[in-house]
Every structure is written in structure tokens, then in C-alpha cells.
Amino acid sequence: MAVKKKIEACCSSAGVESCCIESLATVDERGQMVLSKALREKAGIKPGDKLAVATWEKDGKVCCITLIKTDEFSGLLKGLLGPLVNKASDK
């Protein structure tokens, strides 16, 4: 019986409720792209909002690019770094 090789994504989905393709964006000759109005409304992105760009690499190439609203990103960092800071201060 042949064993199927498990194909793993380059970025972890741990803690992610769901992942889906919302829309497609085309990068123009100046490197700019537009997020659809429907996606901006669903994500609560307004003009002037800041987005952090995170990348994951696999085999030396960027395979995933994620946009994270900065207000969410700061909460994520506190969640990740908070326990490390607490551990370090306990020593």
C-alpha cells in the first residue's frame, strides 16, 4: 500500500479559526495593489490605517505574505512576548 506524503504549508495555521481566499489582487508596474472594497469593509480597514507585512520563507523563498492590522499586531506581540518577559523577570 502506497503511503501518501503529507504536504505541509509554509506557514503555521495554529490558532487560526479559518483561512480562505477573499479576493485576488494584482500588483501593478509600480508595485502597488488594491484591496477590494468588500474585503476592506469586512476587515474594518479605513483610509490611513496601518498594516504590518509579515512573510514566511520556505527553501529560501518567500511563500506567504500576510497583512496584519497594527492594532491587532500589537496585541499579538504582547501575547507572544508577555510570557517571555514574565519568565525573564521571575529569574
Low-confidence stretches: none
Q: What is the residue-averaged pLDDT? A: 78
Give the CA-based shape.
Answer: extended
| SSE arrangement, N to C | HEEH
Report the structural category.
Answer: alpha+beta
Biggest beta-sheet profile? 2 strands, antiparallel
Give the number of DSSP strands: 2
- What gap, in angstroms, lies between the N and C termini? 53 Å
- The helicity comes to 25-40%
Question: How many individual helices?
Answer: 2
Q: Name the beta content range.
A: 15-25%
- The strand line-up of the biggest sheet is 1-2
**What is the C-alpha radius of gyration, as a whole number of Å?**
18 Å
Write the layout of secondary structure elements.
Elements: H1 37-43, E1 51-58, E2 61-69, H2 70-90
Antiparallel strand pairs: 1-2
Walk me through what this model shows.
With 91 residues, the chain is α+β, with helices and mostly antiparallel strands. The protein has a domain at 37-90. The chain has 2 helices and 2 strands. It has helices spanning 37-43, 70-90, and strands at 51-58, 61-69. The chain has a two-stranded antiparallel sheet. The radius of gyration is 18 Å and the shape is extended. The mean pLDDT is 78.
